[in-house]
Amino acid sequence: MEFLQENIIWVALAFVSGGMLVWPMLAGGTVARVTPAEATLLMNREDALVLDVRETGEWGSGHIHGARHITMGQLGTRMSEIEKFKDKPIIVVCATGNRSASACGQLKKGGFDKVFSLGGGISSWIGANLPLTTKS
């Protein structure tokens, strides 16, 4: 008991960090992440839809060829635009992988089953020396 009183800040920090690790499992599981190589296989072999949820300025600076652009803020109201892709894999892309994980959760709640987040986002795509385009 004395240890807890003397180290309350460290104990609280350990508790909070542990909770942050457990939270994704309690909040509905983890998001399936794919590497750029796995994403290209899904695109080529299973005709996966690439859904870019970055903001318009980010999209304009370069995106994956053939990707569809719906910003994270618009996803809830524009999900009907991608209804026809419910049976296909969807690879969700953002800058680093954080927003795409959240978007995957929204898509799963909307009835999409084959949803993947590009791990590391566009940054990992660029890091793998894969091309981007600025054409719509």
Explain what this protein looks like in three dimensions.
The chain has two domains: 1-27; 31-127, Rhodanese-like domain (Oxidized Rhodanese, domain 1), CATH 3.40.250.10. The chain has a five-stranded parallel sheet. The chain is 46% helix and 12% strand. Helix 4 links the parallel strand 2 and strand 3 (68-69). The protein contains seven helices and five strands; from the N terminus they run ααβαβαβαβαβα. By secondary structure, the chain is of the alpha/beta class.
Task: Give the helix/strand layout.
Blueprint: H1 2-6, H2 8-26, E1 33-34, H3 36-46, E2 49-52, H4 56-60, E3 68-69, H5 75-78, E4 90-93, H6 98-109, E5 115-118, H7 121-127
Parallel strand pairs: 1-5, 2-3, 2-4, 4-5
Outline:
With 136 residues, the chain is an alpha/beta fold. The protein has helices spanning 2-6, 8-26, 36-46, 56-60, 75-78, 98-109, 121-127; strands at 33-34, 49-52, 68-69, 90-93, 115-118.
Strand portion: 5-15%
Number of helices: 7
Based on CA inertia axes, which overall geometry fits? elongated
Architecture of the largest domain, according to CATH?
Answer: 3-Layer(aba) Sandwich
DSSP helix fraction: 40-55%
Q: Overall mean pLDDT score? A: 88
CATH superfamily of the largest domain: Rhodanese-like domain
Keyword list:
136 residues; Oxidized Rhodanese, domain 1; alpha/beta; 5-stranded parallel β-sheet; 2 domains; single chain
